[in-house]
């Protein structure tokens, strides 16, 4: 991959309760189609319903095979010819009476569903997602021509052990969709840079704009390199953020500053 540039685009869309989920799907699909020529496009967490709109989770639940968001995003990825991390949806499995999951979807450029990841760490303590959704149990990576993606979602960011396991599974880029609240924006910035620095990976973190269930969103989607430098950062409003990445910088950083080889606690067998 040395020297080959990867064009990554984060779609920090606004989630407005006055806009129907169907209208937002159409708008998101149009934004994806406008990114033809990109290698990877990323959407935020739970953008069809809103990450904090827990009262709407059950009514907004979908299937992954033929659900409205999966269908719309599959078609958009195919039309644009891009790898599309379509953020996450409220998945119900088995349909129609199974538990709910916060599930991220990765589509290949031909529109096929390549990988799905169920969020492991559920936010809310004794409310919202924490009690309404089941947690995933699998560490998930996806090998793309541009590099190996490690998949995580929002609250997962606060649990560094998950990201060590993703690195052990080969991750070179972390893709983190989120619905992060504005009042904890400082944590968002610090944690994203920490995950990049400690794991020597690119971090592509896509948040939402707008307000979910009276919770203002932070926005500030970010792309961070393996040394921890912020390559691009959005503002608080809806924004399309595009950056060119050199995937070879992961191996170069790990070679120049080989901190990962000095791991002792929790390190995989050599």
TrEMBL record:
Gene3D superfamilies: Carbon-nitrogen hydrolase
Record domain CN hydrolase: where: 6-247
Entry GO MF terms: hydrolase activity
Any matching Pfam family: CN_hydrolase
Keywords from the named record: Hydrolase
Top-rank lineage group of the source organism: Bacteria
Keyword Electron transport recorded: no
Family: Belongs to the carbon-nitrogen hydrolase superfamily. NIT1/NIT2 family.
PANTHER family named among the record's database cross-references: DEAMINATED GLUTATHIONE AMIDASE (PTHR23088:SF27), NITRILASE-RELATED (PTHR23088)
UniProt protein name: Predicted amidohydrolase
């Amino acid at each position: 991959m040395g020297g080959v540039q990867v064009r990554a685009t984060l779609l920090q869309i606004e989630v407005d309760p006055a806009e129907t989920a169907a209208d937002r799907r159409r708008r998101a699909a149009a934004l994806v189609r406008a990114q033809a020529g990109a290698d990877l496009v990323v959407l935020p967490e739970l953008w069809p319903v809103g990450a904090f709109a827990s009262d709407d989770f059950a009514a907004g639940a979908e299937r992954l095979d033929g659900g409205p968001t999966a269908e719309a995003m599959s078609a958009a990825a195919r039309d644009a010819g891009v790898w599309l991390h379509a953020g996450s949806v409220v998945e119900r499995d088995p349909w129609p009476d199974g538990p709910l999951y916060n599930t991220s979807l990765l589509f290949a450029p031909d529109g096929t569903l390549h990988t799905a990841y169920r969020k492991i760490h559920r936010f809310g303590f004794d409310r919202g997602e924490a009690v309404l959704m089941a947690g995933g149990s699998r560490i998930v990576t996806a090998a793309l021509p541009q590099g190996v993606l490690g998949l995580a979602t929002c609250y997962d960011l606060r649990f560094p052990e998950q990201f060590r396991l993703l690195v052990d599974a080969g991750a070179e880029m972390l893709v983190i969709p989120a619905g992060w609240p504005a009042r904890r924006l400082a944590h968002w910035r610090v944690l994203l840079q920490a995950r990049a620095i400690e794991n020597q990976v690119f971090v592509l973190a896509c948040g939402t704009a707008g307000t979910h269930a009276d919770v203002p969103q932070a926005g500030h989607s970010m792309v961070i390199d393996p040394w921890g430098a912020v390559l691009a950062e959005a503002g608080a409003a809806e924004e399309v953020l595009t950056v060119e990445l050199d995937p070879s910088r992961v191996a170069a950083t790990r070679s120049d500053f080989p901190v990962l080889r000095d791991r002792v606690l929790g390190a995989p067998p050599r």
